Amino acid sequence: MLLKFSNKWMNHKKDSNNNFVEYREEKPHYNFLAKTWVEFTKNSSIHAVHYLTSETVNAIGKFFWFCVIVIGFVGMVYCCILLSARFRSNLTATVFETTNYPITEIPFPQITLCNNNHINYNRTEEAVAKFVGNATQKQKEFFVNFTHVLQNMMYGSNDEFEPVLDEGYDGFMENIKISDIILFMMHDCKEFLIECTWRDKTVNCCDIFSLQVTEYSYGFSFNSYSNVGTQFVNRSNLFPWRIANTGKKSALTVLTALHLETKVERNTGIDKPGIIPFVQHPQTHPNTGLFISVNTNAALIIKPTVFSTSDDVSRLHPADRQCYYSHEASKLKGLSINNLPYMRANCISACRHNHMMKFCNCSFAFLFFADAENPECTVSQLRCLAKVNDILNMIKPKEKNPYFDESEQGITCDCLPECNRIEYEVTMEPIYDDEPISEGMVKIDVHYGSKTMIKYRTDVLYSWVDLMVGFGGILGLFFGCSLLSGVEIFFYCTIGLFHEYKRSKEGLVKIIRAKFPFIN
């Protein structure tokens, strides 16, 4: 190694032979950074970088390879940016996981039945005596006309109260709960449900059906977690129930009696005799039903579909994946009802209930629920509900949509579906038996149409693993390097650099001895 000496006289001393000597400081101009860089380029697995310091490549060649490396670096960065943008876009894809998912793996749906004519007018005199026995004759007539509206009461029909209230209401019913009137005058379980079979075995209808609150007033539910009755609700590990067979009488059959002689003809268009069946998840508040007219024998054929998501989907924001997990929704207030878990149907019912409270500060116990914080609407508050009835019936999208008039008032329900859910699609078909059903009856046979179903799975198109694989492919394409090349860079930037720095530090000051040329 060449040494360059300074001209500085350090000291004059005599040695053991009494000779004068000169001590000079040795300062090797040793560039440890450059040395580390040279060592790295010679030994690195990254393509083409060794040309930058190779002694066999002239300056033009080094410049050429420098330009190639710069262009490759720019291309690598550009492709990485594109890949990162695709990863951040949080794209998802839904695919068939299986088309043979067995029906035994999911619960049989909740079956809720409502008589479209809720009121048994054979109980009118008893109801008058019970609720308004001390009222005037005019008030009693008002009470009877009021019960006529309750016959077909459902969510969104509040405007039907307005003509009755216009007849003159003096406040005499303010302490009477509307739900109590309906419960007293409705057809009870034994009157409404005549014959039932479950798994082709005859059972007592009132043992398997419980009183239920729906958006079509009170009904009776089978296989439901949500009910207000206590007759038969199994809370064992075997509930909700399941079936393994398909076809006629494989699941639930019910014969209902509508008691046409007890209804009042109102000529409103919604007072047609029939039943409203709901086929929904056992943990759902019944809010979407069909209509089956009187004297009908029908089959309700269920086609379930299962939707699941991968673990990678859970890291996405709900707005990106367009669904909620149950643990997320439980932290958000007002997205469910009656202490039921989050489901889209429950969220919509909760949204409707919340807007009723917002506009009129009251609720209906026979449609949703009522408690101290959500008091039941009194008769006088029905005017408020009648005025906002059109608003409550109009659900508008959360974001602006050119197909919806922004000036039209409505409610907005931010209700995403569940990420992991079961959907029950129902098809109604007539049943032609040799023995027709009796007059004023409706018979339904609810069963699955197939022993297997489709299960969908939603996954992210680009997960963290896909991102790393993509980056690795880009690095390999432009520089032919891998993860170990990154380890090399880390090694030379830390251990290698420290090692060269230490070597240069040790050789920085060195004392040598030399005789003066003029001393003997």
From TrEMBL:
<comment type="similarity">
    <text>Belongs to the amiloride-sensitive sodium channel (TC 1.A.6) family.</text>
</comment>
<keyword id="KW-0915">Sodium</keyword>
<dbReference type="InterPro" id="IPR001873">
    <property type="entry name" value="ENaC"/>
</dbReference>
<keyword id="KW-0406">Ion transport</keyword>
<keyword id="KW-0739">Sodium transport</keyword>
<protein>
    <submittedName>
        <fullName>Uncharacterized protein</fullName>
    </submittedName>
</protein>
<keyword id="KW-0407">Ion channel</keyword>
<feature type="transmembrane region" description="Helical">
    <location>
        <begin position="63"/>
        <end position="83"/>
    </location>
</feature>
<keyword id="KW-0894">Sodium channel</keyword>
<keyword id="KW-0813">Transport</keyword>
<dbReference type="GO" id="GO:0005886">
    <property type="term" value="C:plasma membrane"/>
</dbReference>
<keyword id="KW-0472">Membrane</keyword>
<dbReference type="Pfam" id="PF00858">
    <property type="entry name" value="ASC"/>
</dbReference>
<dbReference type="GO" id="GO:0015280">
    <property type="term" value="F:ligand-gated sodium channel activity"/>
</dbReference>
<keyword id="KW-0812">Transmembrane</keyword>
<keyword id="KW-1133">Transmembrane helix</keyword>
